[in-house]
From TrEMBL, chain A:
This is Rhotekin. Residues 500-513 have a biased composition (Low complexity). Transmembrane segments: none annotated. PROSITE patterns: REM_1. InterPro entries: AHD (IPR012966), Cytokinesis/Rho-signaling (IPR051364), HR1_rho-bd (IPR011072). Residues 483-537 are annotated as: Disordered.
From TrEMBL, chain B:
It comes from Chrysemys picta bellii (Western painted turtle). GO terms for cellular component: actin cytoskeleton; cytoplasm; fibrillar center. This is Tax1 binding protein 3. GO terms for biological process: negative regulation of cell population proliferation; negative regulation of protein localization to cell surface; negative regulation of Wnt signaling pathway; regulation of Cdc42 protein signal transduction; Rho protein signal transduction. SUPFAM superfamilies: PDZ domain-like. One of its GO terms (molecular function) is beta-catenin binding.
Length: 537, 98
């Protein structure tokens, strides 16, 4: 089955590449390749990660990559169809109007996205029942531009789902359709359920209460109504991982654009039985702003033909437009270059200036298609680049952290570590934590080797190290006393770890190159490109 | 401490919080840094302390320039570091062994 999927996908890709080649469009092909590489990376990350938040983030990336690939492929197909339609047209007019004058593009920004929830009174106030949590995010698509919001964990302690970061689209036309989709993945607190064999699971679900049983079965099967991903893209690289399902969606367009917070309707595509279900109020609030490029940039530069009846005041005519409006520079001569940033109707001209002029503006007034966006320039803030998620949530960190306080007391540190090691010995099923390797044989021999090399070339490196660095004096004092006391450690029931290195040949073997390197250090001149960079901070 | 670049590393770290000093119109830390993933580790003049994190930003895979930038941000008055120290690690290991 997997092989068949692979073959289908390869054929798909081949077909797409052929289309791209025939269209002589390398741009979209490059984007597809990029997304394919991202997808590979996300699959690998998903297979390697151990924590739930990482798996959720990786699955989200996978979903976004798939959507983008789909969008690019559809765009290529559409372009191909248009090209074919052009070629096979009997008469030029058959192909439809090839209008060079497209309405100008613009920026569209969605920010302050908020989706209210509607928990039942009993759930919210009395805090009854198990805490049902979901991981949600929004996928926003405008044309071929697809962006995702950050992932938010939602449970009944929240009244709204809030997405802080805005999303900016840069290639929107006035007839844009912004699709917003809310995806949700149910998080069962007891993760052991995920690996329960099917028969046992169905027995369990039938013996549990009706609603929770249904929810459980839905979680294991995959709820009905989930979007059908095309066969070629349904990569089976996330077996047993979290699954996102479409919870609700809506489409926004120019009519909804306003320079303030507005409420829009959401179409909900799930039911209460699903594991990923959340009680949505049914609406979505956001600020949808649009800024046509003609409002902010110079769109045209050329000659403006004027048919004027000569009026003495014309020579002193100057156009003091609004800040973002047209800036016309007039001169005394009738023909002059003029740069315009927006076509304005004559009534906006300063009063008393013209008196009897007629102006023919040879510009297509296509800015008007953006309607209300042209009345006033909407402020769009470019959303700041998002920090990588691993750094925001402590649980999602790539670091296995184990805070040990107080940090100055070595004995306290070793006490805690020793206790953890004994605790782990009693639970062999938990496996070996990564930090245990720190106290095992091979690393110990490496550190011993470096100890000997340190003492061997003590003077040159030490003298340099003592220069001007802040040192925690108390810690250093402790360290020196502890080194003397290395023989007597905390008396705990500790199984002796691998002892000090036995073969002196290994330590001396590794000493020589190190001491050689260290010995060579003082002779390197600071201007040597191979010496290490230093910076004062 | 020996490690293979690209592989996960385990270390005993110490939290250090430094409040920057004001020198004229700049905020400085008052020490120098050396190294970075783009530098030759054998040439590192300061091999004693290694910085793992600065104010939450990972420093295990940064170039010298990136490290310098993260330590010298204008709007940050306090720098919180997670530092690994060879002597600390050795001492903990020795205590564990006995």
């Amino acid at each position: 089955m997997q092989d068949r999927l692979r073959i289908l996908e390869d054929l798909n890709m081949l077909y797409i590449r052929q289309i791209a080649l025939s269209l002589q469009d390398t741009d979209i092909q490059k984007k597809i390749d990029h997304e394919l590489r991202m997808r590979e990376g996300a699959c690998k990350l998903l297979a390697a990660c151990t924590q739930r938040e990482q798996a959720l983030e990786a699955t989200k990336s996978l979903l976004v990559c798939n959507s983008r690939i789909m969008a690019y492929m559809s765009e290529l197909q559409r372009m191909k169809e248009a090209q074919v339609a052009q070629r096979t047209a009997r008469r030029p007019s058959d192909a439809g109007p090839m209008d060079d004058r497209l309405p100008c593009r613009g920026k569209v920004c969605v920010s302050d996205l908020r989706i209210p929830l509607m928990w039942k009174d009993t759930e919210y106030f009395k805090n009854k029942g198990d805490l049902h949590r979901c991981a949600v995010f929004c996928l926003l698509q405008l044309g071929v531009e697809i962006y995702d919001t950050e992932m938010v964990l939602v449970d009944r302690t929240l009244t709204d789902i809030c997405f802080e970061n805005g999303v900016l689209f840069t290639e929107a036309g006035p007839d844009f359709e912004l699709k917003v989709e809310l995806y949700s993945a149910g998080l069962e607190e007891d993760s052991a359920l995920g690996s329960t064999p099917k028969k046992l699971a169905s027995k369990l679900s039938s013996s549990l209460g009706r609603s929770s049983g249904k929810r459980l079965r839905a979680a294991l099967d995959g709820a009905p109504g989930s979007p059908v991903i095309p066969v070629a893209l349904a990569l089976p690289c996330a077996p047993g991982g979290p699954k996102y399902h479409l919870l609700a969606h809506t489409v926004l367009s120019l009519a909804e654009v306003q320079d303030s917070f507005r409420t829009h309707d959401l179409a909900i595509t799930s039911n209460e039985e699903s594991s990923f279900w959340l009680p949505l109020y049914g609406s979505m609030c956001c600020r949808l702003a649009a800024q046509p490029y003609c409002m902010a940039q110079q769109m045209m530069c050329g000659f403006l033909k004027l048919q004027v009846s000569l009026h003495p005041s014309l020579e002193r005519l100057c156009w003091g437009g609004h800040g973002h409006g047209a800036s016309l520079h007039w001169g005394a001569r009738p023909s002059f270059p003029a740069g315009m940033s927006r076509a304005q109707t004559p009534r906006a001209w300063p009063p008393g200036c013209l008196g009897g002029c007629g102006v023919t503006l040879p510009l297509p007034l296509l800015a008007g298609q953006w309607k209300q966006c042209c009345d006033e320039l909407m402020k769009i803030e470019v959303p700041s680049p998002r920090k990588p998620p691993a750094l925001l949530a402590k649980q999602g960190s790539l670091y296995h952290e184990m805070a040990i306080e107080p940090v100055d007391d070595i004995e306290a540190v070793t006490d805690i570590l020793a206790r953890r090691v004994t605790a782990l010995e009693l639970r062999p099923d938990l496996g070996c934590p990564p930090w245990l390797s720190l106290f095992e044989g091979p690393l110990l021999s490496a550190s011993h080797a470096s100890i000997t090399s340190d003492t061997a070339s003590a003077s040159p490196s030490r003298s340099r190290q003592s220069w001007g660095r802040p040192r925690t004096l108390s810690l250093d004092a402790r360290l020196s006393t502890l080194k003397g006391r290395a023989g007597k450690g905390p008396a705990t029931a500790l199984r002796p770890l691998a002892g000090p290195p036995h073969s002196s040949s290994s330590s001396s073997g590794s000493t020589t190159p190190e001491s050689e390197r260290q010995g060579r250090r003082p002779t390197r001149s600071p201007l040597d490109p191979r010496s290490c960079l230093q910076s004062q901070v | 401490m020996s490690y293979i670049p690209g592989q996960p590393v385990t270390a005993v770290v110490q939290r250090v919080e430094i409040h920057k000093l004001r020198q004229g119109e700049n905020l400085i830390l008052g020490f120098s840094i050396g190294g970075g993933i783009d530098q030759d580790p054998a040439q590192n003049p300061f091999s004693e302390d290694k910085t793992d994190k600065v104010n939450g930003w990972d420093m295990t895979m940064v170039t010298h320039d990136q490290a310098r930038k993260r330590l010298t941000k204008r709007n940050e008055e306090v720098v919180r570091l997670l530092v690994t120290r060879h002597s600390l690690q050795k001492a903990v290991q020795q205590s564990m062994m006995s």
